Amino acid sequence: MEYKEFVDYIKKQTKRIAGKEKKVELTHIIKNNDMEYDGIVILDKDDYISPTIYLDYYYEEYREGKDIDSIVMEIMLAYEQNKDRIDIKPSDIYDFEAVKGRIMFKLVNSKKNTKLLSRLVHRPILDLEIVYYILFDEFEDGSITSLIYTNHMERWGVTEEDIYRLAYENTRRVLGASIRRMDDIIKDILFEQAGSNRQIYEETVEMLNMGCGIDMYVLTNDRKNLGAVSVLYTDILYEFAKKMERNLYILPSSIHEVIIIPKEEEYKKEDLSLMVNEINSTEVHPSEVLSENVYEYDYASNRII
Known about the structure:
Layout: H1 3-18, E1 22-31, E2 35-44, E3 52-54, H2 56-63, H3 68-82, H4 90-94, H5 96-99, E4 103-109, H6 114-117, E5 122-125, E6 128-139, E7 142-147, H7 150-156, H8 160-175, E8 178-181, H9 182-194, H10 198-209, E9 217-220, H11 234-244, E10 248-254, E11 257-262, H12 269-282, E12 295-298, E13 303-304
Antiparallel strand pairs: 1-2, 2-3, 4-6, 5-6, 6-7, 8-9, 9-11, 10-11, 10-12, 12-13
Helix pairs in contact: 1-3, 9-10
């Protein structure tokens, strides 16, 4: 089947299995970097919101040979497993007093998000934009969030500056932020993956320690999710630069973290930009790319340039 036929079939079969007491709708969503996805939503008659199950991934599975009716059953299973996680009414989003402690922010690329930004509350910084969202709930395998659109701000009767101040305080309080050595993070991952086989772990760590290594550090939040926005906490950068006694290069690794490199004569900004471009094109999902540009934190002025 072509993609449209696939989507129509999935909707028809899902509706048949869900029964007359449920409503099945298709939805089209613009996500980060203006990437567009089709999804299916299954609603009980008293539901206002239900998980969106994205169909693009399932179409790729179908093209690779997976049986379409087993895909329909997977979609129904995903709905059953997640339907009770969401207990939000539209009125909850418009109650400013109820949500103001849950307002967070994240960073996205300005040029890659023209469609999305036209509808969102946002603030420019460098070649990026700060955008805002409501964090309703968190789970071990994900979270429930809602982007903040201009109509939300208008209904609340607040300004972007009000939202920014709340987001700055809430995001840091709830999600935290820290800088760690890259090799320490890798060692932690290796330790978990090695399990009881300590020989593999020790041999791999020894190879890491022998590497040429540029001194790299990772700045992110405690969840390691949407943590690149932690670069806005200039006091963390200031204390780190003070400890290193030099300015810092900031490499936008993804929307989830940035890499910090203490500035040295042998590190050229152009070379680091080439490295970021290479990583973006080979290692980072297109929906998670933040920027191709390398920034510098200036210790004397306490700002990113």
